[in-house]
Amino acid sequence: MDKLIITAAICGAEVTKAQNPNVPYTVDEIVREAKSAVDAGAAIVHLHVREDDGTPTQSRDRFQQCTQAILKVCPDVILIPSTGGAVGMTPDERLQSTDTTPVPEMATLDCGTCNFGDEIFDNTMPTMRAFGKRMLERGIKPEYECFEMGHLDTILTMARKGQVPGAPMQFNFVLGVPGCTPATVDNLCWLVNKIPVGSTWTVTGVGRNAFPMAAAAIAMGGNVRVGFEDNLYLSKGVLAQSNGELVAKVVRLAKELGRGIASSAEAREILGLKPRK
Question: Which residues neighbour 161 within 8 Å (Cβ) at sequence distance 6 or greater?
């Protein structure tokens, strides 16, 4: 069984300081949270960016600024910028996160439209083809985000047609979003059993599902995403003080279950990425 790759989704686009005062908005705060996660054991930082007042943005300049600042203090970390952005953003707006220098090693690619609480997260087939084309042209490895079980078949069909990058594929199964596929071990097993041989996968459990899904993934040989984007609590009623606290809890679970923790260099090898020069 490979070592466990931990991803930290440090701020997202929806959570606020009113919900947890430690949610990062500014560049300095985003760097602080990225470093706390990496120091605790995260090999990957999944990156959204915000304006200083907390407004979600996909500004190329803001991504560039945050990326460079994170890499100064965490030079080996794998960064996965979001192309999901926030509900209501246009596809062109969302793709700005792939325009940074250097070109990102990876980026998310959302695999279909779905309910997202009271909102609709719009990912039409033309949008997905455009995102796939961008990643093919720029050599960006997608992390395929599946919020619904049907999303998996959709993206596998697109990969067979050459519309998005193919093998080896990395999936992130985001389970427990209100209105989407529930976070159950049965659902996770169904998804994992349908991916191509040689693929890698991560699970994201939203809210109270974060650590039960993490434990399942650790035992099943998959990988784990945690962070303020998905869950603000270390335990019931106890707000996490940092993303590092959430990562450290996953590290403890992995230790109890006998899984080693992958460094960023080891994660690159597992994911089929080129070594960092």
Answer: none
Q: Are 181 and 111 in contact (CB under 8 A)?
A: no
pLDDT at position 193 is: 98
Tokens of 246: 């959430």
45 by DSSP, 3-state: which?
strand
Residue 234 CB coordination number (10 Å): 17
Structural domains in the chain plus CATH codes: 6-271 (3.20.20.70)
With contact defined as beta carbons under 8 Å apart, do 145 and 111 qualify? yes
3-state secondary structure 99-114: CCCCCCCEEEEECCCE
Tell me the pLDDT tens digit for each residue of 10-53.
Answer: 999 999 999 999 999 999 999 999 999 999 999 999 999 999 99
Give the residue among 43, 44, 45, 58 at the shortest CA–CA distance from 13.
58
C-alpha 226: how far from chain center: 9
Instruction: Check pLDDT > 80 for residue 277.
Output: no
Three-state DSSP class for residue 263: coil
pLDDT in tens, 66-76: 999 999 999 99
- Greatest Cα-to-Cα distance within the chain, rounded to the nearest angstrom: 47
Residue found under tokens 């349908």:
194
Q: One-letter amino acid identity for 96?
A: Q
